[in-house]
Amino acid sequence: MRPSVAAAYRSAAARVLACLIGAAVFAAASSRPAEAQEGILESFRTQIALKSVGGPRISPDGSMIAFSVSTSDWENNRFDQEIWLVVGDDEPFQLTRTEPGSSTGPQWTPDGSRLGFIADRGDGAQAYLIRPEGGEAEQLTSHDGGISAFRFSPDGSRVAFTATDPAPDAFEEREERYGDYAVEDADFRMTHLWVMEARAGAEPRRLTEGRGYTVGGGFGGGSFDWSPDGREIAFGHTPTPQVNSFPHADISVVDVDAGTVRPLATDPGPESGPMWSPDGARILYSTTAGANPFYGNTELAVIPSGGGEPRIVTADFDENPSPVAWSDEGILFVASQRTARHLFLLDPESGQITLQADTPEMIMTADLSDDGTAMAIQGENRTTVGEIFRLSRSAGTARPPRRVTDMTGQVADWGDLGSREVIQWESEDGAEIEGVLMKPPGYDPDRPYPLMVVIHGGPTGTSRPQLIGGYVYPVIEWLRKGAVVMMPNYRGSAGYGADFRALNVRNLGVGDAWDVLSGVEALVDRGIADPDRVAAMGWSQGGYISAFLTTSSDRFRAISVGAGISNWMTYYVNTDIHSFTREYLEATPWDDPEIYAKTSPMTYIRQASTPTLIQHGEFDARVPTPNAYELYQGLQDVGVETRLIIYTGFGHGITKPRERLAAMWHNWEWFARHIWGESVEMPITEGGGGR
Asked: pLDDT exceeding 90 applies to what percent of the chain?
């Protein structure tokens, strides 16, 4: 059994010839000593060390914007996050300093006099308050075990927060008598809501309790919002803290004084992110409205705050809206539109949606001032990195946003970084596929270039025409080396509507391969890509597609599989999100073993011929390591060159700078050898050798 991919496979004779040529090129390649690679290594470090901004929060009067800045702490091998502030037209400055931890989750007090944030300064994660002019932060909460999130009441007199319950006494008694073990799907702790006066030393009071639900869990089901009059809090919750529970997220409302809880939105499917209307009469929330929770559209619904029938208000909008704010003029949300991401205004009565801002091209998040006249935006364009912008608004219209940060200045002396453009091609089954093409500096349209295909995860992710990116893939150095980079938005990607996201249902791997391979052939046909020097790579779902390509296609000279699925049966019984496979393949492996086999890379292992690097985190719960070992052993058994690297102590992502540097270098090594015929060594010590 083998999936049909038109023009994807070379003949057996051509495969043998390609292997012989590749061996000859490698044998003739000049070995580049480690000292010659120090400049490359330093470039990787510089890319990883780029500061990035996020999470803007505008003050109630619109005069100040707080935002986070992430940096690399190489000495302690961690990524740090602190809060910065920009006042009016002044230069931004760093407001918080938590050592050795981070400061996160900024929230303005309703009068704008202070900014709250979460930091662990030796007492667990607690809420702190700091004045915008700086100075020492004051600890607000002192909750045993720390808190997860917090929100000020509308009048600023109280603060609500979520905290995870301590382990039951029975757990400690059990461990003392029988040792340490865990019962699957049972031994977890719930998170609940608390409230206290907004002053240091105040005694918190529990608002929710029990093991019937957790405020949190799943994919963000635990957000909460105060009613405008401060009497109630609407909150999202799931049956358990497990990721698998997110399809069962519901919304309830708690009376802050009485502590009574009443269900509000309990329809089948996930319901999350409650947001009160300005008059307190209605509550907005996100729901799949009966659609598939993995690949269906997320809709916005409005329900009377006292209970009643919900009403879908985005039925005519074919993408996933992310609410920003509900003001007197309507509901503001951001949503992807193909590779772009824009700001929209929704009239909750008529359902009419109008575009509010499409500059910058990719608006990732936003926040609105209390009077609705100013917004803070996080976004970027093709020639910039992510920046913070201020957007002035009046009567439902917006002026061009003004940039208030200069993060792009970090790359001002990096020279020409090439160009980014969005391209289209037709897949094997006629589907229109789009992707991002990055061209190197001094691109010459009259000659082909080595092609590096970088496949995003998800599958409901989106590749965008960003200036800097690549995660553990050294895209910038490949461009400088004279390659083109293609990032396909294969079927299932977000930004293209619900029908497109469903094209890979019972078609995982197979249809994805059509999309990637047809994109490669389109670039070859257009004279852009060198047909004999093509590589592919990706992480998570991108790693799965890379694994599928390495066993079912001989189109690539080399492949890198990052945290990828190799066998859907193996994945299904080991992952922390079993429902993913059941929904996309519409069956369990016991109900339909054929569809599991058809879409699994290991099914085609005897046809594999492509040298394959495998990268995986040791404690990956989402795509557990048996997937990596299975592919590694299978490739070895059929005589395909392979290398497996396990990053010790990591889960699904490489979240520390040194190991990210190593992972980037491992990809550089692998493709330098197989695409450029160069032998390079990782510099372990300055001027020394490596492995």
From this structure: 87
